[in-house]
DNA sequence: GGGAAAATGAAAACGATTGTCAAAACGCGT
DNA sequence: ACGCGTTTTGACAATCGTTTTCATTTTCCC
């Protein structure tokens, strides 16, 4: 829709890992854009609602976003140094989650999985 | 050590699911305690550092705590209505996480897994 | 071009959490 | 019980990410 939302999407797509709203705002301002922080937040919220970007929370409670290759259900392997993320799948995990949920009588079972580590290039430094 | 910390621990242990710092503060004040909010935060921070309680973030970014039966690595099956939590294990998930991590050259691989659903008693209402 | 509707951004509001600092509680040797 | 140094506590202010407000600007459609 809007130009601004597209700007934010591209800023995200051009980045390697998860970025916070504040990060993206700083990036865009640094490259000369006159975008406002509010608009960045709104764009990210809209993009996450349509499933175009993934959201997760850091341990500090900050929301971080990433434009994903696929809109299908998947998880991330994230480098805890440079925050580069690899999209991964885990059929075994999917099955396990629903199985353990129903075993305890839970319905509408969903799950979140995040895998963290230090990527090869960061480890070699 | 301190009496206050013990008070907070017991408040947590006496609860069924995950509670936020603010929840616990409200609970304690409601039952007549003169504890301060700052102290509740400090107690929870100390308890989480020793591994006596588990911490996770809600999608809204609020930190929630739970006194767990075991201090070993485990995950939770949480009711999204009443937030009651069941401690679960998933050897398959543990193996999968480290396997996928090392496959991509990541070291020091850790992971977070949370399973959500609606528990039987909440679903029947 | 004109006007309603949507988008924008600066600033204020908000809510969770943390920092500050003086008062209160505690430990402990006497 | 009595100081006295140390730790803990809690009211309050400060911080930080995020959301809301609202007036202005832009977009869209006729």
Structural class of chain A: alpha+beta
- How many H/I helices of chain A? 5
Tally of DSSP β-strands of chain A: 6
Instruction: Quickly give the CATH architecture of the largest domain in chain A.
Output: Orthogonal Bundle
Dominant shape of chain A: globular
* Proportion of helical residues of chain A: 40-55%
**Oligomeric composition of the shown chains:** homodimer
CATH superfamily of the largest domain in chain A: Winged helix-like DNA-binding domain superfamily/Winged helix DNA-binding domain
- For the record, give the distance between the C-alpha atoms at the N and C termini of chain A, rounded to a whole number: 42 Å
What's the structural domain tally of chain A? Answer: 2
Q: What's the average pLDDT of chain A? A: 93
Radius of gyration of chain A in whole Å, from Cα?
Answer: 17 Å
Report on the biggest sheet of chain A. 3 strands, antiparallel
Placed side by side, the strands forming the largest sheet of chain A appear as 1-3-2
Order of helices and strands of chain A: HEHHEEEEHEH
Using the coordinates shown, work out and report the CATH topology of the largest domain in chain A: Arc Repressor Mutant, subunit A
Highest-level CATH class of the largest domain in chain A: Mainly Alpha
- Please indicate the percent range of residues of chain A in DSSP E strands (runs of 2 or more): 25-35%
The most extensive contact between chains is: A-B, 35 and 35 residues
Poorly predicted spans of chain A: none
């Amino acid at each position: 829709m809007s130009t601004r939302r597209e700007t934010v999407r591209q800023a995200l797509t051009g980045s390697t890992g998860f970025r916070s709203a504040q990060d993206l705002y700083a990036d865009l301002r640094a490259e000369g854009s006159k975008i406002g922080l509010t608009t960045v937040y709104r764009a990210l919220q809209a993009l996450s609602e349509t499933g175009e970007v993934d959201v997760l929370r850091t341990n500090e409670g900050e929301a971080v976003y990433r434009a994903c290759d696929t809109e299908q259900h998947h998880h991330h392997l994230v480098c805890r140094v440079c925050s580069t993320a690899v999209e991964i799948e885990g059929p075994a995990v999917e099955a396990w989650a629903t199985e353990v949920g129903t075993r305890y009588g839970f319905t509408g079972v969903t799950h979140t999985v995040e895998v963290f580590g230090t990527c090869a290039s960061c480890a070699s430094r």
